[in-house]
Amino acid sequence: MDGMDVLWITAHPEPRSLNGFLAEEGLRALRAAGHEVEVSDLHAMGWNPVVDIADYAHDAAERFQVAPAAERALDSGALSADIRAEQEKIDRADTIVVQFPMWWFGMPAILKGWFDRVWHRGYAYGLRGPGGQWLGYGDGFLAGKRALVVVTTGGPAWSYGGRGIHGAVEELLFPLQHGTLFYAGARVLPPVVVHGADRFTPEEGGHAADALRERLLAMPTTEPIPYRTRRGGDYDGNLVLRPDVVPGSTGLGAHLA
């Protein structure tokens, strides 16, 4: 198996947590297998999650429109150094691991802020192909790269099932996996979900680490989630599924081939 170049992004404030333990074990397994790994530990870095005019050398006398300001700053070399450093890590990687505890059904604020600042127009979206076509949902700046989400939940697995009170975990992760990673062109692998993390014993933590190691080392050959691509013929000119594609079906599951 050829070596991977992995960017591991993690967002938990306590390195002695289950998330911290899983990150340590996962990174050790990847490196022992000969893979190159860079880490963005957002809390250890003191990452600033807040979008601000200072990120883009914007003139405060003018109205601040985030998307065009970010694109201009990237093009002119005025982009904040911390943002550009993260983009350079992404550029070097062929595989991205995003690890976090699920808080209130989503990412912690520090990780959401990483995407808000790093995933800006001109770099992560608003891109055009050689023929001027819009890139997104299956192609984009992450085309050819893999992405894996590793997430812990406080509740038990059955409460995140199709009829569980918290909702299906695949749907809770849809904004990140489909709307962020797949939108940018990544091949998004089925997530690693560790349920009931608040009640884990050391033995259960060891089992979770074993399962994570297995998934990490299998990333090059794991089949991605079969999301429908924008250019695959399933969507009409308004980006709505054609009537003959899963007729009558609505909701997030309709976007799986």
From TrEMBL:
Keywords: Oxidoreductase. Belongs to the NAD(P)H dehydrogenase (quinone) family. Pfam families: Flavodoxin_2. The keyword Hydrolase does not apply. Residues 4-212 form the Flavodoxin-like fold domain. The keyword Oxidoreductase applies. One of its GO terms (cellular component) is cytosol. This is NAD(P)H dehydrogenase (Quinone). InterPro entries: Flavodoxin_fold, Flavoprotein-like_sf, NAD(P)H_dehydrogenase_qn. One of its GO terms (molecular function) is NAD(P)H dehydrogenase (quinone) activity. SUPFAM superfamilies: Flavoproteins. It comes from Umezawaea tangerina.
